[in-house]
What does this fold into?
Amino acid sequence: MIQRLNTLFVIVLLCASCSSNNNNPDTTPVTDNQNTISAIEFIDEFVIPVQDINGVPVGGLSGIDYHEGKWYLICDTSVPPIRYYEADIAYTKDGFGNVAINTMIEIKDASGISLETGIVDPEAIRFDTASGTIFYTSEGSIVNNIDPALIEISTNGNQIRNFTLPDNFKANATDDTKGPRHNGVLEGLSPSHDNNGYWVSFELPLIEDGPEPTTVDTPSPVRITFFNKTTGTAERQFAYELDPVAREATLGTTFEVNGLVEILAYDENKFLALERSFASGYLDGGNNVKIYKVDATNATNTLSTETLTNNSVVKAEKTLLFDFETIRGQLTNNTVDNLEGITFGPKLADGSRTIVVVSDNNFNSFLPQLNQLIAFKIIP
It folds into this structure.
């Protein structure tokens, strides 16, 4: 994650605490099509307390998914054990009840051997409803010429396959004129609405596509790409324009960034996009986070487009759905933290669908941070 590596002033994710109630009627799995979203309403925040499993700290929660009563969270670490967690998370329209991270599963190679340091840098996770397997993205390490990846694993953590990436996704540390930016690669992951494949999203533009966002509005598009599950190859891609950085760094610091940190398909060619801006030096964490509705129906297929600076490229349309500034005062320490993961959750007792967002606490590497869960009710 960019913040983790670039500043001592990362003050990231908030949380609140809970426990689990498997008899809660609000935990009925969603069964209808999730294709109408006009607004979302804040339900509650929960901060996951400091804890460990078998002496290994729980943290770095950069991705989250939900399926039939079980929650999956991936740990953003390149140091063994590379891992994801299974959890019980329960809430009602009135707030969180129980939150329990029960199980840690080590991610290994195809032979069941532990991964070495630096081989992967996990960012997003999805449970595949058809195969019962897990898909996750890795940013790799561009400066060390380790490619990003889209990987399928079994629920016991063993690798099943590694998808074939387009050439311009691959690490290119020797050429500063093109290729992915370090820690700005495959941050987002979503199953397609028809479940025939997966969409993956870059956090930052490829070097040849435009500059990193600044506080001045710049043309900074990122690529969102569809991979067919059967063939394992990319078939479609579109461009998504990033916002400028929301505010300038302060207190003598200089680090500023804005990126696309997660996507979630809710209809054909329609997505929720979690976009996070960060500026160093702020006691409130320095994060400004928004959720956009994205419509790629009329967007150009850019899979074969060498650079997105081409004026003929039609980008996806984006519409603001929710600004976390509207609930800052209701969150722990008035902090909007390092939010990185988003998923549809279970329905509430009245049948309303829900969304849950999670933050990555960077293992408190720089300043005290929080593993924050935030739940929303969907207004159709």
Q: What stands out?
A: Confidence is low (pLDDT under 50) at residues 1-33. The radius of gyration is 19 Å. The longest strand covers residues 95-106.
